[in-house]
Amino acid sequence: MNRLPVVFLLAAATAFSQNAPRIDSISPNTVAAGSPSLTLTIDGSGFTADTQVFWRWGTLFPSALPSTVISPNRISATVNANLLTTPGDVAIAVRRSSDAAASNSVTFSVTSGFAIQTSCPLPDAVLGTIYSQTFAAQGGTAPYTWSLF
To answer: Is the pLDDT of residue 77 over 90?
Structure first.
């Protein structure tokens, strides 16, 4: 009977994960779809000169982002505007090329852009009569604040 070295493979994976880099937070963690390119700042631990930030981690084709290690606890990456066109959640992770150790993944959200759904122009007001109009919006970050000028 042929046996595969499964125990060895599991032991090797465990050895890598014990010293793997770790992401504690990212900033920003959300932007509206259609935003311009941005710098993503990642705070954590275990970052070395060969650490790379990945966009869409855990998918078949994750994208390596241009990354700059600032310190063992901070790394920054450039997220190009073409990656910010479609709303949805994106997994972010970092990986060291020297030992292939990968971090935990964290979520970066691309939200749909803010849009007012109330038709325009609003109905005319009548002098001396109470005026009321309901506004509706979608996307952006709720709660919404309305002001009259």
So the answer is: yes
CATH tag, 13-111: 2.60.40.10
**DSSP secondary structure letter of residue 102:** B
**Residue 57, Cβ neighbours under 10 Å: how many?**
19
Helices (H) and strands (E) in the chain, counts: 1, 11
Rounded to the nearest 10°, the torsion over CA 24, 112, 87, 22 is 0
pTM of the model: 0.69
Query: CA–CA separation, 65 vs 80, rounded Å?
Result: 9
Query: Where exactly are the structural domains of the chain?
Result: 13-111
Measure the CA–CA gap between 22 and 20, rounded to whole angstroms: 6
